[in-house]
């Protein structure tokens, strides 16, 4: 069976052929053509178009074409479920869905930049997704340092050295910025790094580059989300405050976004976290 899509694939148009070949159609052939020619050549060659608007195999809502193929062909595989989130996050620029999404985007963009022939790019992409599938099947829960005691020791020594060094030489702007971020988190204000850099009289590029050195090895966005989650955890000790209000008070646009980020940082949904607080009597019973 022939499948056809737009030329110059990057994420979905590499991931989908790999998924089709592995789980749907082992004899599949793939055709890459300019966008304007996809539907015409699909008719001429009796090929199935995918990942373009207005066809069956495409994006639906916040899901990408990879998700649709999994649903359409009832692919029930735990590793594919993991990969689907990574592909969706990379293809829709929602890297909060899966930590690995940003990495997949970087690798895919680099491959597309280096390889100008779409079919050579597809062949290389298959190797990337074969590796990703092996990782998702066998290595998903493993951390790099846990299998290498020597590297883990070096990492711990480096962190202690870095912490002591940065603590001793922490610039004045770091202390000021911590207070400004906390004030704006408490006041439920949107936090803009350009505005903060202007108030601190620092170049925004310099602030972005230096930020992680002094803020728990996190970038600006992740640090702000961490502070908001910490505030949410504190608010949850009061059983009278509904979770929807806590989401608002901590600056999240909606409860689903709040729940997703909260679970990413704590491992529990907000409701489960609150139940756990009751179990350890942090929240008084009967209130």
Task: Explain how this protein is built.
It contains 14 helices and 3 strands. Strand 1 (2-6), helix 1 (12-24) and strand 2 form a beta-alpha-beta unit. Among the domains are: 2-139, no CATH class; 226-287, Homeodomain-like (Arc Repressor Mutant, subunit A). It has helices at 12-24, 38-45, 65-72, 78-91, 101-114, 118-139, 149-168, 172-186, 193-200, 204-214, 220-235, 243-249, 255-266, 270-279, and strands at residues 2-6, 29-33, 48-49. Helix 1 (12-24) runs parallel beside helix 3 (65-72). It is globular. The chain has a 3-stranded parallel β-sheet with strand order 2-1-3, covered by helices on one side. Helices cover 62% and strands 4% of the residues. With 287 residues, it is mostly helical.
Write the layout of secondary structure elements.
Layout: E1 2-6, H1 12-24, E2 29-33, H2 38-45, E3 48-49, H3 65-72, H4 78-91, H5 101-114, H6 118-139, H7 149-168, H8 172-186, H9 193-200, H10 204-214, H11 220-235, H12 243-249, H13 255-266, H14 270-279
Parallel strand pairs: 1-2, 1-3
Helix pairs in contact: 1-3, 1-6, 4-5, 4-6, 8-11
Domain HTH araC/xylS-type: 175-276
Keywords: DNA-binding, Transcription, Transcription regulation
Protein name: Chromate resistance protein ChrB domain-containing protein
């Amino acid at each position: 069976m022939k499948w056809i899509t737009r030329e110059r694939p990057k994420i979905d148009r590499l991931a989908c052929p790999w998924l089709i070949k592995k789980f749907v159609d082992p004899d599949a052939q793939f055709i890459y053509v300019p966008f304007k020619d996809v539907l015409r050549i699909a008719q001429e060659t009796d090929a199935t178009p995918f990942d373009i608007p207005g066809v069956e195999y495409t994006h639906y809502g916040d899901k990408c074409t990879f998700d649709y193929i999994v649903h359409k062909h009832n692919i029930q595989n735990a590793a594919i479920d993991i990969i689907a989130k990574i592909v969706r996050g990379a293809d829709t620029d929602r890297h909060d869905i899966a930590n690995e999404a940003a990495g997949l985007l970087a690798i895919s963009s680099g491959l597309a930049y280096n390889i100008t022939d779409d079919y050579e790019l597809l062949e290389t992409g298959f190797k990337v997704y074969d590796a990703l599938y092996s990782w998702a099947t066998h290595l998903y829960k493993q951390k790099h340092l846990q299998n290498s005691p020597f590297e883990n020791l070096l990492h711990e020594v480096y962190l202690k050295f870095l912490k002591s060094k940065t603590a001793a030489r922490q610039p004045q702007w770091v202390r000021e910025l911590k207070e400004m971020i906390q004030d704006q988190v408490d006041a439920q204000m949107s936090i803009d790094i350009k505005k903060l850099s202007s108030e601190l009289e620092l170049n925004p590029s310099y602030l972005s580059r230096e930020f992680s050195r002094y803020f728990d090895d996190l970038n600006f966005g992740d640090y702000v989300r961490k502070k908001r989650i910490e505030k949410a955890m504190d608010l949850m000790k009061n059983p009278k405050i509904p979770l929807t209000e806590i989401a608002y008070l901590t600056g999240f646009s909606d409860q689903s976004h709040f729940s997703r980020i909260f679970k990413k940082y704590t491992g529990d949904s907000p409701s489960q976290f609150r139940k756990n607080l009751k179990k350890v009597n942090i929240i008084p019973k009967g209130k």
